[in-house]
Amino acid sequence: MTVKSTARARKKAAPAVPDNLPAGSGAQPELIQLLTPEGERVEHPDYPLTTTPEELRDLYRDLVLVRRFDAEATSLQRQGELGLWASLLGQEAAQVGSGRAMRTGDYAFPTYREHGVAWCRDVDPLNLLGMFRGVNHGGWDPNEKNFHLYTIVIGAQALHATGYAMGITKDGTDDAVIAYFGDGASSQGDVSEAFTFASVYNAPVVFFCQNNQWAISEPTTNQTKIPLYRRASGFGFPGVRVDGNDVLACLAVTRWALDHARSGNGPVLVEAFTYRMGAHTTSDDPTRYRLAEETEAWRAKDPISRLKAHLDREGLADEAFFASVEAKSEELGLRVREGVRSMPDPDPTLIFDHVYAEPHTLVDEERAEYVAYAASFEGGENL
Amino acid sequence: MTTEVRSLREFRMPDVGEGLTEAEILTWYVKPGDPVTDGQIVCEVETAKAAVELPIPFTGTVEQLFFPAGATVDVGTAIITVAVAGGAPAPAAAAPAPAVQGEPAEAPEPERREVLVGYGPRTGGAQRRARKTTVAVSNGTASHGTAAPAAPAVVVAPVAPAPVAPAPVAPAPVAPAPAAPVALPEQAAGDRPLAKPPVRKLAKDLGVDLRTVVPTGPDGVITREDVHAALAPAPVVAPAPQAPAAAPVVEAVQDDRAATVTGGDVRIPVKGVRKATAQAMVASAFTAPHVTEFVQVDVTRTMKFVRRLKETGELGRDVRVSPLLLVAKALLTAIKRHPEINAQWDEAAQEIVIKGQVNLGIAAATPRGLIVPNIKDAGARTLSGLATALGELVDTARQGRTSPADMQGGTVTITNVGVFGVDTGTPILNPGEAAILAFGAVRDMPWVHKGKVVPRQVTTLALSFDHRLVDGELGSKVLADVAALLERPKRLITWG
């Protein structure tokens, strides 16, 4: 591919939709990057970003705390305190960058791995863990946080997000929606349907695909023959690939995409090119299907170390700052561990309370039956 | 001022996957007396799904390890105890410690409520909780006071191995009861034993109390044989439920797998790599008709070449050079000349697949047993690249870190039996491959060289091949090529 033709393509309508890549050529298309793996700040003509030192430090703190929370959760699963955990290790920048790009009124539809986005939406980490412990069904109010419940069904949330975005158009507000999904979900029919509806109805939704290279054990080469972001052009909206390990690029590109959507220009597909450093979930063993060299190559592109390198290089943070982040991280670790271990089991009858918003005779009857049944056992009714 | 308040906390084998029932302890990273902190990795376990490291949830001192490395432990069974400060039923235990270590100060109940959640352990096998209405009928126990009713007993049951199992005196290689941890709950619970009606009748007829019978059937059901066994005086096999008694004898076995000794015979459970090896070998030996050919060859020049490569270090400073490297290179060169040997019999498709690249397997004896990792696309590597790959492969295998991906997709294999001092063997094909080369010991032998009998360095090569797709002619040509290349390593250049 030539730089010239890419630039031309970019100038048209939306940025960076190079159609000149031969399908399956294996050539990597341009990756929007504002911070190199070495921590060097670079400019991109289409995605200018100005940041104050404080904003950079905030982003760094977010990244570190999100990673810490994730590591604690993995550890708690290994101690039998959680049934399962899907680690976001390696994807912190994609999630924090896009999460911090949202405005208060914007709404996120996550998969089950968006712990970093949840963090940015102020969802209490313990609420997420309660779900993976099996004591709640996602105990936050989605409409309070503008962060929908975790969706386990692969790709289904793309449709929910599109529907919500179509509703925003009818409301006439300038909010936007962001739908998270992965490279594996890009093969789901739901995602294609969502693309179609969003495009045709000009819905203000950003499809944010974290391409972490692996759908459990299936490599991206099993999902697509072209770079994923180019799928968008077939549906008639712009697509862009961003360095998913670069928190600044993710912030700038997502901010642009949300503004594009909220201004009535319709959807955008953002492909955050990143890597799942850990296992798919705690039930998975990635050493069975991928090579250590690949993981090591991505480790060199770590999102946190590049921002730290940048802060160091530019003298934007001192030792005291890093020490304070470390202390906060320890504090969070302790809070998470203690919080999870002391989570009470829910009242078994709670499940009946959430069937209908209003009282319901049949459900009342079933609740009573269940209580009687549970009470028929020795040792209490707590089943 | 009271003495330091300590209490013992046990960490039970968690379900680290979804719905797993057991895990094998691979390595302990701590021993009794070691200090540990919350979140510290204490051991590595392997389940049906993955090998993972377990972090301990307490801060304190390791008191006891209940199982040695190699033991397979049911999910929910205590594997380690840690003495932690505070939390015990002592006066004025209001030390600041509990808050710090993340354990909510808790009542010193002897049995803390099950902490494992989610898809966690099955606590009592398939046992049902007693219904209030049925108590009087089934047990005849009139009392079902709130203090210790049947139900809690069931919950507690799987913990039983803790006090029962290895005496704290011998912390190291004590084996747990290998076969029948299931048996314990039944005995402990004093519940009605599980048996089918005809077996109950048999027991009644023979005057056997079912509560004294060790069940071996699925889910702890007593079989007809169990009843007979209970009647016979001394069972020959099965030290099963008498774990404590059997334990001291067991430590004789140095292999870290749980093994049992009965009357001088050592019984080692077949599992893991051994099981995989056995299955692969049986499958290979009885599907592929093997032919093995042999050739003796003068490798003096090759050995000289190896020495020179070592001395000059021209393949790279840290690269290990061994005769095996040259054998590998010779085989790869022979394959280049006869690519049909690098092939696979596809039974399902009724096709012979000539492989596009050579993934060269090297049989390696490792702590975990025999494994055959392979070097991907070995044919495309330079001599130095091959040497590096070989070195890495061996190191990885020795550390027991070979991944399944490293072992998949092999197309041809070398087994270096010479390192054990033997001349040759008739190797069995790695399943799915068409040929395997055995490289024997290199010995000084009287040899006719340039018309005279002189001492030369001689080795024996053996090539086994799958006669379904490799004829004698092809197999012979390949073996002869390897021999010729090793006899005059310069041919690696002219033929390569």
From TrEMBL, chain A:
Dehydrogenase E1 component domain boundaries: 63-329
The cross-references to InterPro entries, in alphabetical order and at most eight, read: Alpha-ketoacid_DH_E1_comp, DH_E1, PdhA/BkdA, THDP-binding
Q: Which Pfam families match?
A: E1_dh (PF00676)
Q: Where is this region: Disordered?
A: 1-27
**SUPFAM superfamilies reported for this sequence:** Thiamin diphosphate-binding fold (THDP-binding)
Needed cofactors: thiamine diphosphate
The UniProt keyword set, sorted, is: Oxidoreductase, Pyruvate, Thiamine pyrophosphate
Which Gene Ontology molecular function entries are recorded, alphabetically?
magnesium ion binding; oxidoreductase activity, acting on the aldehyde or oxo group of donors, disulfide as acceptor
The answer to keyword Metal-binding applying to this record is no
Q: Name one GO biological process term.
A: branched-chain amino acid catabolic process
What the entry lists under PANTHER family is as follows: 2-OXOISOVALERATE DEHYDROGENASE SUBUNIT ALPHA, MITOCHONDRIAL (PTHR43380:SF1)
Q: Record keywords: Membrane included? A: no
The protein's name is Pyruvate dehydrogenase E1 component subunit alpha
Q: Which NCBIfam families match?
A: PDH_E1_alph_x
Say which domain of life the source belongs to. Bacteria
Q: Which organism is it from?
A: Kitasatospora indigofera
TrEMBL record, chain B:
User: Which ranges carry the Peripheral subunit-binding (PSBD) domain?
Assistant: 194-231
Q: Where is this region: Disordered?
A: 91-110
Q: Which GO terms describe its molecular function?
A: acetyltransferase activity; lipoic acid binding
Q: Which cofactor does it need?
A: (R)-lipoate
Please give the CDD domains that the UniProt record associates with this protein: lipoyl_domain (cd06849)
Q: Where is the composition biased (Low complexity)?
A: 91-105
According to its UniProt record, the EC number is 2.3.1.-
Q: Which InterPro entries match?
A: 2-oxoA_DH_lipoyl-BS (IPR003016), 2-oxoacid_DH_actylTfrase (IPR001078), 2-oxoacid_DH_E2_comp (IPR050743), Biotin_lipoyl (IPR000089), CAT-like_dom_sf (IPR023213), E3-bd_dom_sf (IPR036625), PSBD (IPR004167), Single_hybrid_motif (IPR011053)
Give UniProt keywords alphabetically. Acyltransferase, Lipoyl, Pyruvate, Transferase
Any one cellular component term from GO for this entry?
cytoplasm
Q: What class of enzyme is it?
A: transferase
Positions of the Lipoyl-binding domain: 8-83
- Give the record's family classification: Belongs to the 2-oxoacid dehydrogenase family.
Instruction: Give the matching PANTHER family.
Output: DIHYDROLIPOAMIDE ACETYLTRANSFERASE COMPONENT OF PYRUVATE DEHYDROGENASE COMPLEX, LIPOAMIDE ACYLTRANSFERASE COMPONENT OF BRANCHED-CHAIN ALPHA-KETO ACID DEHYDROGENASE COMPLEX, MITOCHONDRIAL
Protein name according to UniProt: Dihydrolipoamide acetyltransferase component of pyruvate dehydrogenase complex
Species of the source: Kitasatospora indigofera
Q: What is the lineage of its organism?
A: Bacteria, Bacillati, Actinomycetota, Actinomycetes, Kitasatosporales
